[in-house]
Amino acid sequence: MFRYAHTNMIARDHKKLIAFYKEVFHCRSIGETRDLRGEWLDRLTGLSGAHIVGEHLCLPGYGEDHPTLEIFSYDHMEESDPKINRCGLAHLAFEVDDVEETLKRVLENGGGQIGELVTAEYPGGKRAVFVYASDCEGNILELQSWS
């Protein structure tokens, strides 16, 4: 069997970031909290004394069993500045009814805006509204709406 299971985000403050995704994007708690440590986790992560806490949130538009957004914090973490054009995971994209209203909620909940809100025309008469934003910890988001 193959199926997409989750995307993991490491947060400075997992409780604050979990609250952000619940408030802005309607992610839901499904009772999958974590408080992990032990020799098996040290071997898995390659870290000595690793300790992880956090929660899996059900993404909007999906049932209770997957995929999830896994938001964790480690006791000890490395800092970096995410950039829109860096190699690796670039952003999380959410299709929303109203990009401007969702961007407003992002900003009200401690997030930010990257670049401008734009409208793009696609073949076949499709039209999309896009904006890049960031969550309350600086992770990059794409908000999009199609008509």
From TrEMBL:
<feature type="domain" description="VOC">
    <location>
        <begin position="3"/>
        <end position="146"/>
    </location>
</feature>
<dbReference type="GO" id="GO:0046491">
    <property type="term" value="P:L-methylmalonyl-CoA metabolic process"/>
</dbReference>
<dbReference type="InterPro" id="IPR004360">
    <property type="entry name" value="Glyas_Fos-R_dOase_dom"/>
</dbReference>
<protein>
    <recommendedName>
        <fullName>VOC domain-containing protein</fullName>
    </recommendedName>
</protein>
<dbReference type="GO" id="GO:0046872">
    <property type="term" value="F:metal ion binding"/>
</dbReference>
<dbReference type="InterPro" id="IPR037523">
    <property type="entry name" value="VOC_core"/>
</dbReference>
<dbReference type="InterPro" id="IPR029068">
    <property type="entry name" value="Glyas_Bleomycin-R_OHBP_Dase"/>
</dbReference>
<dbReference type="Pfam" id="PF00903">
    <property type="entry name" value="Glyoxalase"/>
</dbReference>
<keyword id="KW-0479">Metal-binding</keyword>
<dbReference type="InterPro" id="IPR051785">
    <property type="entry name" value="MMCE/EMCE_epimerase"/>
</dbReference>
<dbReference type="GO" id="GO:0004493">
    <property type="term" value="F:methylmalonyl-CoA epimerase activity"/>
</dbReference>
